[in-house]
């Protein structure tokens, strides 16, 4: 199986984004003027000595598994995490959040569980939820959709775009907490086409179900800010949709992951049951690594200790490689 076969074509998605952004020509001047081009993890605007950073994202089709399991108390964490982690990827501190919840219909239990997850995510990320919007759209929505926008700030001199990345820099990886919130269209097709149900025991860990394993909330990497404040960080990346190809957002240089994390059990399960090639897995999922920090080699071990991660590779001239697997040609 491939991500495209399941209904998500990354190339067409990229083309659509280019078509949309090609029409966005107007730019404000003065306070609020853009400081970055569209396409990085976060958008930046001028706010005096600081830059304000904005991200927006949702939970995606992971919500369909939540509906199947009748378990909605973690998707709010996912919603906040996907936004906060993108802010962290340019060195910004997250401050506040607004959510958007669209539903087919409401129930009190559902609303309380969604609120529980949002509150927990906000606590982990040390942000305030300052508002939001709800909409009942039975003619459009089947089930529900949850998305949000996060505001952060960063001193202009501390913005990390990846421009300072150099060949020979070390790559420090931080483990993920499973699939996080990307690739679920393919993951769901694998489970549903292989004869399993989400309530079945997870073969690699019989104390949990497949659904519970897939609903593990996205990890929030707030500890990255400590590394940014203390060490000479050259680049940051949140590994989400399109897997390691996401690294092309931050540099034209290449990545050699010579000592990657062991692949998490959930990815082993999906690859086996879906008969998915290694290359497709790394182009779709985070494969056990949710965030990377790029910095001088002599500071790598200290950074790894600070985030409970490890040195997983180095920056090279071009291409993306994981051990002997070529993700992108040099």
TrEMBL record:
Catalytic activity from the UniProt record: 2-formamido-N(1)-(5-O-phospho-beta-D-ribosyl)acetamidine + ATP = 5-amino-1-(5-phospho-beta-D-ribosyl)imidazole + ADP + phosphate + H(+)
UniProt cross-references to CDD domains, sorted A to Z: PurM
GO-annotated biological processes: 'de novo' IMP biosynthetic process; adenine biosynthetic process
GO molecular function terms noted in the UniProt entry: ATP binding; phosphoribosylamine-glycine ligase activity; phosphoribosylformylglycinamidine cyclo-ligase activity
Residue ranges of domain PurM-like C-terminal in the record: 166-319
Residue span(s) of domain PurM-like N-terminal: 43-154
Predominant location: cytoplasm
Keywords: ATP-binding, Cytoplasm, Ligase, Nucleotide-binding, Purine biosynthesis
Gene Ontology CC terms, in alphabetical order: cytosol
InterPro entries: PurM-like_C_dom, PurM-like_C_sf, PurM-like_N, PurM-like_N_sf, PurM_cligase
Keyword Hydrolase: no
UniProt keyword ATP-binding present: yes
Pfam families xref list: AIRS, AIRS_C
Compartments it resides in: Cytoplasm
Assigned EC number: 6.3.3.1
Pathway assignment: Purine metabolism; IMP biosynthesis via de novo pathway; 5-amino-1-(5-phospho-D-ribosyl)imidazole from N(2)-formyl-N(1)-(5-phospho-D-ribosyl)glycinamide: step 2/2
Recorded superkingdom: Archaea
NCBIfam families given in the database record: purM (TIGR00878)
Sequence similarity: Belongs to the AIR synthase family.
HAMAP family: AIRS
Protein name: Phosphoribosylformylglycinamidine cyclo-ligase
Gene for this chain: purM
């Amino acid at each position: 199986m491939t991500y495209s076969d399941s209904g998500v074509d990354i190339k067409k998605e990229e083309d659509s984004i280019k078509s949309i952004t090609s029409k966005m020509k107007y730019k404000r001047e003065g306070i609020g003027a853009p400081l970055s081009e569209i396409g990085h993890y976060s958008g930046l605007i001028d706010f005096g000595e600081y830059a304000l950073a904005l991200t927006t994202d949702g939970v995606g089709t992971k919500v369909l598994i939540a509906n199947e399991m009748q378990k909605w108390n973690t998707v709010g964490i996912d919603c906040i995490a996907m936004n906060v982690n993108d802010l962290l990827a340019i060195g910004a501190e997250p401050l506040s959040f607004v959510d958007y919840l669209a539903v087919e219909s409401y129930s009190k239990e559902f609303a309380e569980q969604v609120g529980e997850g949002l509150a927990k995510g906000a606590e982990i990320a040390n942000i305030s939820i300052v508002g939001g919007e709800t909409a009942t759209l039975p003619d459009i929505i089947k089930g529900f959709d949850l998305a949000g926008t996060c505001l952060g700030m960063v001193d202009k001199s501390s913005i990390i775009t990846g421009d300072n990345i150099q060949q020979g820099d070390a790559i420090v990886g931080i483990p993920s907490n499973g699939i996080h919130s990307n690739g679920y269209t393919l993951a769901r097709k694998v489970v549903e086409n292989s004869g399993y149900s989400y309530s079945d025991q997870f073969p690699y860990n019989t104390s949990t179900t497949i659904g519970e394993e897939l609903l593990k909330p996205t990890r929030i990497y707030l500890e990255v800010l400590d590394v940014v404040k203390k060490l000479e960080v050259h680049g940051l990346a949140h590994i989400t949709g399109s897997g390691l190809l996401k690294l092309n957002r931050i540099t034209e240089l290449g990545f050699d992951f010579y000592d990657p994390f062991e692949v998490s059990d959930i990815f082993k399960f999906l690859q086996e049951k879906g008969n998915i090639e290694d290359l497709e897995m790394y182009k779709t999922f985070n494969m056990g690594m949710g965030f990377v920090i790029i910095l001088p080699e002599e500071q790598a071990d200290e950074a790894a200790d600070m985030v409970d991660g490890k040195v997983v590779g180095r920056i090279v001239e071009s291409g993306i490689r994981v051990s002997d697997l070529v993700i992108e040609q040099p």
